[in-house]
Amino acid sequence: MHIIHEVIGSAQLYLEETSKMEASVKFTPLPEGYGVTIGNSLRRVLLSSLPGTAVTGIKFPGYTHEYTAVKGVKESLFDVTLNLRELQLNKHTKGVEVIELPLKKSGVLTAKDLKVSSDIEILDPEQVIMTCDGADAKVKVQIRVEKGVGYRLVNNIDNSSEEDPEMILIDADFSPVKHVRYQVEPARVGELTNLDELNLTVKTDGGIEAVKAIKLASNLLQDYFALFNVDDAYTDEEFTTSFEELKKRKESEELAAQKAQETSFTPIDILGLSQRTLNALVNGGVTSVEQLLTTPMSQLVQLRGFGQKAKSELEQVLKERGYTPGMPPQPTQAPAA
Fold it and tell me: What phi and psi values does residue 73 have, to the nearest 5 degrees?
C-alpha cells in the first residue's frame, strides 16, 4: 500500500446496494492515479471474467442455417437467434442442457413459454423470442443453454465439429454483468488536494447479485497479483505500508487515549471557582478538569445555574491557569534529582 496513507489515513470503502441487480461503491481517499488503476481493472474483470449463462445453439426442425425464412414464424431465423442472445437465464450447475420451445400457440412467444428444468431460472420472462403466425404443437424448437465465462465466438472449427447438422451455433456472451461505470473525482485530506475518489456502479442481469459480482471480481484480481509475491516477498518499509498495520496502529492509539482519560482525574475544586459556579458544574455532571475542558462552552451554558457571569468567570480562571479548552491538562513532572 502507498506510503501516503500514513498521512491521509486508511482508504474507506462505502458500498451501497440499490437492488440485487445494482450496486455502487465509493473508495476514498486514494493516491493520485489510483482511481483509474483500480477502477479500470475492476471494470475489465467484471465485464469479462464472471460466470454466467447463455444460449449457444438452436435447432429448428428442417433448417440448417440461420439465413432463411421460417414457415409459420414472422421473423427470420437470424432475427430469432438475435433474440435468443438477449435471453436472461441463470443455470445453477456447469454443463450443457437443451430446453424446448413448442409452437403451440399463435402470437408472440416469450421466455416464459420455454420448457426448462429446475436447474435453469428464467430471469426475464417477458423477453420476446419470436412471433408465431401458425401454431403447430408438433414443432418444438430446441435451444442449447450453457454456463460459462467470457465471450465465445463461433468459428468454422466449431461448426465442423458439431455432431448435429441441424444445430445452429450462436455467439455467446456469458457475462452476467451488463453495465459497469466508474468515475474518478478529486478528493482532499487536509492540505492534500491531489487525491482520488473512485465511484463505481455495477448492474447485472440478476444471475449474480451486484455486490457479489464486485467482491468476486476483486478476489480474482487479488489471486492473480498474489502470484507475483508468493516467494521471497519484498516490501519497502520506507515507502509502503498496509491497511492492516494502519488499523492496528489506530486501535492502539485509541486504546491508549482511553486508558489515559480513565486514569487521569483532576477534581474541579482546584480551580477556585465561586460556590455558585462550582455547584452549577457539579450538578450538571462536570466533576473533573479533564471533563470540563472537553465539554463545549455551548453545552455548559445550558446547565442550570450557569449563566453569563459563570461563563466569564470560568473563561478567566482557565486563562489564568493556562488551560486550553479541548485539551486535557498535562501531568506535571517531578524535577530531576
Answer: -125, 130
Q: Return per-residue pLDDT of the chain as tens, 337 residues.
A: 677 777 888 888 999 999 999 999 999 999 999 999 999 999 999 999 999 999 999 999 888 888 888 888 999 999 999 999 999 999 999 889 999 999 888 899 999 999 999 999 999 999 999 999 877 778 889 999 999 999 999 887 787 788 888 899 999 999 999 999 999 999 998 888 899 999 999 999 999 999 999 999 999 998 888 878 766 665 656 655 666 666 777 777 777 766 666 556 778 888 888 888 888 888 888 888 888 888 888 888 888 888 888 888 888 888 888 876 655 555 544 444 4
Task: Provide φ and ψ at 245, rounded to 5°.
Answer: -65, -40
Give the CATH superfamily of 51-173.
DNA-directed RNA polymerase, insert domain (2.170.120.12)
Please state the domain extents for the chain: 5-50+177-246, 51-173, 265-321
Sign of the C-alpha dihedral computed for residues 24, 178, 146 and 91 taken in this order: positive
Residue 245 burial (C-beta neighbours within 10 Å; 0-12, 13-18, 19+): middle
Q: Evaluate whether 50 touches 190 at the Cβ level (below 8 Å).
A: no
- Cα-Cα end-to-end distance for the chain: 47
3-state secondary structure of 29: strand
Does the model's pTM come out above 0.70?
no
Backbone angles phi, psi at 173, to 5 degrees: -110, 105
